[in-house]
Specification:
elongated; 2,3-Dihydroxybiphenyl 1,2-Dioxygenase, domain 1; 159 residues; 8 strands; alpha/beta
Amino acid sequence: MISKNTICLWYDGTALDAATFYAKTFPDSAVGAVNRAPGDYPAGKQGDVLTVEFTVMGIPCLGLNGGSGVTHNEAFSFQVATDDQAETDRLWDAIIGNGGRENVCGWCQDKWGLSWQITPRILSTAIASPDRAAAKRAFEAMMQMKKIDVAAIEAALKG
């Protein structure tokens, strides 16, 4: 059954590769139906993979091989809450190690240009702390990072 709300992500012929990577990297993720074009279209030929149904951490997605000319940007990202440094490292390293690139403050992009925020829960908790001085220290520490360092955030919280 088609979900009432599905995130549609545009790819240039690589939707199946992307979906397969997400399914092996993130928990509660899987590749579903692979649909082939019933006829030629501007970005491909009859029989080419047109769409891929997949989930990323339980979120229904549709990868559309729409062709070149449309690129992802930071206006859309998946934010992944991690429980510890090991999980943060594993996900960050998987994305970067598969042709992605680092950005700042826990953001990175996969090789398809899709943005990810790999965010330890302690960071979200720290920034929302009622102790505004501690929140500011944690925020300022985060602003100096690419991949989030959990120990540095914890130290900033303590002062």
